[in-house]
Amino acid sequence: MPRLVLYGTLGCHLCEVAESLLASELNPQQNPVEVVDIANEDRLVEHYGVRIPVLQDQLSGRELGWPFDAAQLQRFVASLQAQ
Questions:
Q1: Comparing C-alpha atoms, which of 5, 20, 14 is closest to residue 66?
Q2: What pLDDT is recorded for position 32?
Q3: Which pLDDT belongs to residue 76?
Q4: pLDDT at 2
Q5: According to its UniProt record, what is one Pfam family this protein matches (predicted)?
Q6: Where are the alpha helices (DSSP H) in 1-83?
Q7: Alpha-carbon distances of 77 from 9, 25, 32, 53, rounded to whole Å
Q8: What span, in angstroms and rounded, lies between the C-alpha atoms of 56 and 35?
Q9: What is the pTM of this model?
Q10: Which pLDDT belongs to residue 81?
Q11: Rounded alpha-carbon distances, angstroms, from residue 21 to 14, 17, 82, 83
Q12: Angle at 2 between CA 49 and CA 79, to 5 degrees
């Protein structure tokens, strides 16, 4: 099962939209998502600062960057489960 992390930060409207999309499209038992605030770590700000929100599979390192819609999200998750 993929371990998904959504990188974002507080006050980021697009991050809130991405979180809502994940909540409506993914089953939390099958695809748990950890939300990580990049503001807490300088290295994350440096890496993701202008790209958030970004969904990452911790097992493969693959990322889905914003903008993404429900269909793109479902394809991304399906491709991770096929591995």
A1: 14
A2: 93
A3: 97
A4: 54
A5: Glrx-like
A6: 13-25, 42-48, 70-81
A7: 22, 10, 11, 16
A8: 10
A9: 0.93
A10: 82
A11: 10, 6, 22, 23
A12: 90
Q: Closest by alpha carbon to 7, among 25, 30, 41?
A: 41
- pLDDT tens, position by position, 18-73: 999 999 999 999 899 999 999 999 999 999 999 999 999 999 999 999 999 999 99
SS3 state of residue 57 = strand
Q: 52 is written with which tokens?
A: 């958030």
Q: Give residue for tokens 């993701």.
A: 48
22, 72 contact by CB (below 8 A): no
CATH class of the domain comprising 4-81: alpha beta
Cis peptide before 53 (omega within 30 of 0): yes
Residue 54: enclosing H or E segment and its boundaries?
Answer: strand 54-57
